[in-house]
Amino acid sequence: MTGGVRRIVPLTMGWEDLPRSVSVHGAPPDERLREPVPALLLLCDGGWLLLDTGFNAALINDPALRRRFHGRPDFRPVLPGPGEPLEEALSAAGIDLADIYAVALSHLHNDHAGGLKHFAGRVPVHVQRAELAYGLGEHPDPERHGIFRVDFDDPEVDWRLADGDVEVAPGVRAIPTYGHTPGHQSFMVSLEKDAAERYGVPGFVFAFDAADLQRNIDEELAVGGFIDCPPEQTVEAIRRLKAIAREKHYRLVPGHDPVVWPAFTKELGVATP
């Protein structure tokens, strides 16, 4: 059986208490949200592909490291349990870390790349070349934007670098949605026949941080976080994803929506923490 994803397992890797303006450009700074941190397991021909890896728990649990990396008083990371978020999420889903044969990162923000340490020297890691180049740049801007070099600067990581649209696994295509970060990518997931019947759609488009909230999609609102571009560029990325979903009759899923993500997780049969 080839050409499509057979199963999707959403993972909730924690939460973030933050201003709504992080997700919606221009939102009042006193409005706040508690947003889930998403990841996805996709069962492909080669095994399980993991999209994003959640937080690095050590940078949150250790008081000195938390002050160093998570010192913003208005932005609070929340772990789902006392251990490593990825290991706990996989255990709850009944899937072993060793069963993951590849990883693809939407981008290098700490809530998406923090679990990469589990895979250094083990499996290929797909990312856009522009994203890694920015993250490894010799300047302080990435850390100021929540990209922590300690999460991914490891010579043992087997990087697979892309320059634009690329198939990262059978049925899984990375879609560049630059703006939120210089090399952000979303993912188009095409389902094989039985899975399409089970999920009720032929496929999904997972926006990740190209569209945090359903409002970003419905109202075409710029996301609140963007690097080296005007906010309008993030709207163009949203429109591109909407056009792909509309043309293919795929379902477009926002990245951090506090209503949509838990409902999606429940719908697919995986309990949230």
State the end-to-end CA separation. Answer: 33 Å
Beta fraction of the residues?
25-35%
Based on the structure given, which CATH architecture is correct? 4-Layer Sandwich
CATH fold call: Metallo-beta-lactamase, Chain A
* Coarse morphology: globular
Rounded to the nearest angstrom, the radius of gyration is 17 Å
- Average pLDDT confidence is 96
- Going by CATH, the homologous superfamily would be Ribonuclease Z/Hydroxyacylglutathione hydrolase-like
- Residues in helix, %: 25-40%
CATH classification class: Alpha Beta
**SSE order in H/E notation?**
EEEHHEHEHEHHEEEEHEHHEH
Reading side by side through the largest sheet, how are the strands ordered? 4-1-2-3-5-6-7
How many DSSP E strands? 12
How many H/I helical runs? 10
Number of domains: 1
Could you give a short account of the major beta sheet? Answer: 7 strands, mixed
Structural class designation:
alpha/beta
Low-confidence stretches at least 5 residues in length (pLDDT < 50)? none
Give a written overview of the molecule:
By secondary structure, this protein is an alpha/beta fold. The protein has a single domain, classed as 4-Layer Sandwich (Metallo-beta-lactamase, Chain A). 27% of the residues lie in helices and 27% in strands. It is built from ten helices and twelve strands. It has helices at 58-61, 63-69, 85-93, 110-113, 129-135, 141-144, 193-199, 214-218, 231-248, 260-267, and strands at 7-19, 32-44, 47-51, 76-78, 100-104, 124-128, 158-162, 166-169, 172-176, 185-190, 203-208, 251-254. The chain has a seven-stranded mixed β-sheet. Strands 8-9-10-11-12 form a five-stranded mixed β-sheet. The longest helix is centred in the last third of the chain and has 18 residues, at 231-248. The chain is globular and about 50 Å long. The mean pLDDT is 96.
